[in-house]
Design brief:
The chain is of the alpha+beta class. The chain has helices at residues 14-26, 33-39; strands at residues 52-54, 64-66.
Length: 70
């Protein structure tokens, strides 16, 4: 293939997204807990391994973990 990445054309329905979210955050089926903790802990500025981690005032002590898609 000439394109080896999603190029913005990756599709998932809500059930797929729910299954992925559950598998990522609440089990070791995709990544081990220790890896997940490293991915979501700031190491350089507000970035973990592949994710941005923010602690907006509106969330109090909780934090936001996300990926912009880039």
């Amino acid at each position: 293939p000439s394109v080896l990445f999603a190029t913005g054309d990756l599709h998932a329905d809500p059930a797929d997204l729910d299954a992925w979210t559950e598998a990522f955050w609440n089990s070791d089926r995709l990544v081990a807990q220790s890896t997940r903790e490293r991915m979501t802990t700031p190491s350089i500025g507000n970035y973990g391994y592949g994710f941005r981690i923010d602690r907006p005032a509106r969330l109090g002590a909780r934090h936001e973990v996300y990926h912009t898609g880039n």
